[in-house]
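Class prep. Protein, please:
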Amino acid sequence: MKEQVASLLDEKIKELGVYVEDAFISTEEGKKIFNIILDSKEVIDLNKITEASRIINPIMDIHKEILGDIDELDIYSKEKGENNNE
């Protein structure tokens, strides 16, 4: 699923300096959610997520066959930071 979503989106969002890290369906509180996780070499701020969402939403609307019967589309960034457990 990630490869399919990335092939649709990466070229369109690369000007923002972001790319699709993962795409998957989860269920939360009885709702099916299609998750798209974005990543970058830099920390992604909320403004960049908003810009990316404005590009991604219309593309995903066109490709409803990928989304299936989901209830929500959630677009967010991969968490950056130091992991002291490694």
Q: What stands out?
A: The first strand starts at residue 19 and ends at 28.
